[in-house]
Amino acid sequence: MLKKCNLFGFLIFIFFLASCKEDKSKETILKGNVTVVTDESILPIVEDELLIFQDRYKANVKIESNAEAEIVRDLTNGKYKIAFMSRSLNKEELDVFEQKKIIPRITPFATDAIVFIANKKTTDTVVDLESVISFLKGNADSKIKGLVFDNLNSSTARQIKELAKIEDFPSEGVYSFKSNEEVIKFITENEGMMGVVGYNWITQPTPEMETYSDKYVVLSIKGVGKTKSYSPSQFNLANNLYPLSRDLYIVNCQGTAGLGMGIASFFAGEVGQRIVLKSELLPYKTPSRKIIVREAIEKKEQNN
């Protein structure tokens, strides 16, 4: 009888250990393992945010990047549950999730921009969007030799097509690579071309890309029907002066209380918004600042 009791107790102990192991591996809003996908044009800020998030919490987040069109496709077919994009989901995409009985949680966290860059040797540092539109519609424009995109399925390409109100790019004069890094490298080696990249890659270049930073210039943009041109900056983004700004979103399609909720709360919270501010993008919500008056400090020192 004693042996049976000991055996029963041993089995209970093993079951307890297995339960503990299962609980530790269970995903919550602040712990677990997840793979997310991000628009390649905003990869630097997403990497920075998730690095701090993982350092603070028991989370392991694998980051993959892709072009916007592929991201949306992979979201709707269930390959990814969490994505970082420069747009929200449209009605057609939301309908797909509604059929799956999933309500995507969409959280804005920053304002980025599309920027035009040119070789350092260029003499014209202003680009007129009317000239860009004219070029994309096939009209002769000697000022633009060619436009270079990261990917023809990217968010930057989509937004420029929407600006020009065209379905497809012209067969000549438009080129594409696989990343914003490749575009920047190409522009530094070729005069007369204009690269179209995410502002995030300009404000937060990788160590490798820093070696190219003095070989290109960021062009100021004159909006359609406007007389003044503006460069991308936090000030111009905040005051809606820069013509090609865009909001950034976390699209969480998990449908459960998982890491997606924790990540979104972190990005939109105090710490996450400070990271955005430091990156030189525009935070969705301005982080609070703790200001201590100098007079109060001096009084405290006198009392001590």
From TrEMBL:
PROSITE patterns: PROKAR_LIPOPROTEIN. Residues 31-269 form the PBP domain. SUPFAM superfamilies: Periplasmic binding protein-like II. It comes from the Bacteria. Pfam families: PBP_like_2. This is Substrate-binding domain-containing protein. Keywords: Signal.
